From TrEMBL:
Regions annotated as coiled coil: none
Lineage: Bacteria, Pseudomonadati, Pseudomonadota, Alphaproteobacteria, Hyphomicrobiales
InterPro entries xrefs: Dimeric_a/b-barrel (IPR011008), NIPSNAP (IPR012577)
Gene3D superfamilies xref list: 3.30.70.100
The NIPSNAP domain, residue ranges: 3-105
Protein's name in the database: NIPSNAP domain-containing protein
Entries under Pfam families matching the protein: NIPSNAP
Length: 108
């Protein structure tokens, strides 16, 4: 199992729109494509309170490539993303890291 950590840094004031999109659209589409989330977090103390950090669990890099590719090209996702950004851009930038658990990690 490998994990992907993604940090979305929002345009100021747009974090609520991002959270709504995940809650009402994105998670349903991930389920459709077999994408497994491993936790979502907002920043309480840190550099910015306009961030969403989440983790995805993948069987392998090939698993990620196949499922993420299908999700990103899903017409329902493309439509929902465009509709959610009708009032303007939501995410300023995204940081993504692929992580592998250590031998002593409680998460495997």
């Amino acid at each position: 199992m490998i994990y992907e950590m993604r940090i979305y840094r929002c345009v100021p004031g747009r974090l609520p729109a991002l959270l709504k999109r995940f809650e009402t659209v994105t998670l349903k589409l991930w389920e459709k494509h077999g994408i497994k989330q491993a936790g979502f977090f907002t920043t309480l103390i840190g550099e910015s309170n306009q961030e969403l950090t989440y983790f995805l669990a993948w069987e392998s890099l090939a698993d990620r490539e196949a499922k993420w590719g299908k999700f990103m090209t899903d017409p329902d996702w493309m439509k929902a993303r465009a509709e959610s950004e009708a009032d303007g851009q939501i995410v300023a930038n995204i940081v993504s890291q692929i992580l592998t658990p250590t031998a002593f990690s409680s998460v495997k």
